[in-house]
Design goal:
It is built from 4 helices and no strands. It is mainly alpha-helical and 139 residues long.
Amino acid sequence: MSKASTESRRSDSASDAFTEHEPWSVSESDVAAWAEREKKRRQAWLEGPNEEERQAWADAERQRRKRQYRDDLLDIDLFDIDLDEGRRFADRMMAGFTNRMVDTPLRKLGDLLREGRNAESRRTEPLRRRRRVHPDDID
């Protein structure tokens, strides 16, 4: 037998003898208490989550899905966007808005003013006498 194997056997037997009095030693009652706690923990795990844990998971999952949905909406490939087309669309939209909100009411106001002037001028002008032509006079 080699000297190293003999020394390792001696140290093993020595460690067994001194473990009871060392501060880091673990007694059988500590091991039994730990085993009982671990058994209860594992049994609770097998029974599944309670209602509070289910609700907490549902809330966390809902928040995760909202973030994912928002990220999917914001995930735009910038190389697919035609910026010139977007600018043209915005220009057309602004032109239409300007036409509807500014030009159209001004045109209507102008038409009303013209019609008012025509009506006013018809009232102030003397009546013109038209020459009446009888059908017998035509030939």
